[in-house]
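Reminder to self: tokens first, then the designed residues, so the page reads top to bottom the way the pipeline ran.
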């Protein structure tokens, strides 16, 4: 796991995640969120791909109001359909990363 100290983008992610935890009904997903909750209390770089315990990524849903359809892409490695998304690059916010991934 990377020992890099967290960045401003990590601070942004920590704030977003804590806000989510405060508002979400997470009773069923507590175990799944356990690692993430533990990591946001550290100074670990939360978006580092080398953080094999888990790292934050960004995704976005593109909805068409007219046809009421959503864009999904085939993820070849996982062999499933997913919304556009991917890794957060250095100095990107989660929103910037999601929009970049959508454009790519």
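Designed residues (104 positions):
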């Amino acid at each position: 796991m990377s020992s890099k100290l967290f960045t401003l983008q990590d601070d942004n992610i920590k704030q977003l995640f804590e806000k989510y935890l405060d508002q979400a009904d997470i009773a069923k997903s507590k175990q799944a969120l356990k690692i993430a909750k533990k990591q946001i209390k550290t100074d670990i770089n939360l978006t580092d791909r080398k953080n094999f315990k888990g790292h934050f990524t960004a995704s976005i849903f593109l909805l068409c109001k007219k046809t009421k359809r959503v864009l999904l892409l085939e993820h070849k490695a996982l062999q499933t359909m997913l919304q556009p998304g991917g890794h957060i690059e250095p100095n990107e916010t989660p929103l910037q990363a999601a929009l970049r991934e959508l454009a790519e």
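Residues 1-6 have pLDDT under 50 and may be disordered.
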